[in-house]
Amino acid sequence: DWTMKAYRAEMVQRIRDQVGKGRVVCGLSGGVDSSVAAVLIHEAIGDQLTCIFVDHGLMRANEADQVVQTFRDRFNIHLVHRDASDLFLGQLSGLTDPEAKRKTIGRLFIEVFEEEQNKIGGADFLAQGTLYPDVIESVSATGGPSVTIKSHHNVGGLPEGMRMRLVEPLRELFKDEVRVLGRELGIPEEIVGRHPFPGPGLAIRIPGEVTREKADLLRKVDSVFLEEIRTAGLYDAIWQAFAVLLPVRTVGVMGDGRTYDQACALRAVTSTDGMTAEFYPFDMGFLGRVANRIVNEVRGINRVTYDITSKPPGTIEWE
Ligand code: XMP
């Protein structure tokens, strides 16, 4: 893409002009925006950039490893990977209210990020993958230009009290343009084409208390579902697809015995911006295959349901 090539070169120059010899930190989440921002900034200033990946232990199966492999091994980006899953899961223990869970995760994220940033001796700039729609949204919300991004919707956002200059190379771009730029930069398709994933991760897909055991169980269900979606060639036709671990046990039969295990829900929607959404109309054969695989392969789950609620009145996530 010729336009993106030129844009890439121009952005690299602008980042160099802005940053000079300064040091930049960037929070990586594994999502498209922070990934593209990090690779672009790295191209501009190399080792003056350090990425911090706060791993809350609530990502999908293998995603944490994939982040580390991609950025450290493939792009040679200086990356701090902090496994903070004990801390996050410990503090989530006993919490059942969705907002309390979100707040706790957001607060810990900032604490851990600052801790890691201090360990590397601080930085002059904070990099963010803010997109044009975030810019418009915050300008119209505050009546003037603003550096804050959608608050509860992005755990990777700038901590209120952190006074650092911002590097926001994607501020002029829409999501589809960020994807084009990401491909131009050689970022693997699994990251560039990835479905959106909420900052609080699996915590808001486990109604009620979050535990490591539940997160592990949900990861198994989720990966069967996503694998089948990919195999069927449906991944790119769907905005988001995921599983929810239901806080209910139901009776089933397995062989000669009776089971009394947990139920799960599958959710897949189409959307253009996440503001409205329609449930994805899988064919029944597909859903039946996925349900069979889950019940047979994931011990602890004996019932599968499919969520056919659209947004509005539902939301995409269950919490
Ligand atoms: P809802 O559930 O509100 O979700 O229909 C709309 C979009 O936002 C994502 N989402 C979040 N993203 N932090 C995030 O970073 C959050 O707390 C959060 N809650 C929802 C959701 O996955 C969907 O893409």
TrEMBL record:
Its EC number is 6.3.5.2. It catalyses: XMP + L-glutamine + ATP + H2O = GMP + L-glutamate + AMP + diphosphate + 2 H(+). Keywords: ATP-binding, Glutamine amidotransferase, GMP biosynthesis, Ligase, Nucleotide-binding, Purine biosynthesis. Coiled coil: none annotated. It comes from the Bacteria. ATP binds at S29, G30, G31, V32, D33, S34, S35. Residues 2-194 form the GMPS ATP-PPase domain. GO terms for molecular function: GMP synthase (glutamine-hydrolyzing) activity. Pathway: Purine metabolism; GMP biosynthesis; GMP from XMP (L-Gln route): step 1/1. Homodimer. Catalyzes the synthesis of GMP from XMP. This is GMP synthase [glutamine-hydrolyzing]. It comes from Sabulicella glaciei. The gene is guaA. The chain holds residues 201 to 519 of 519 of the full protein.
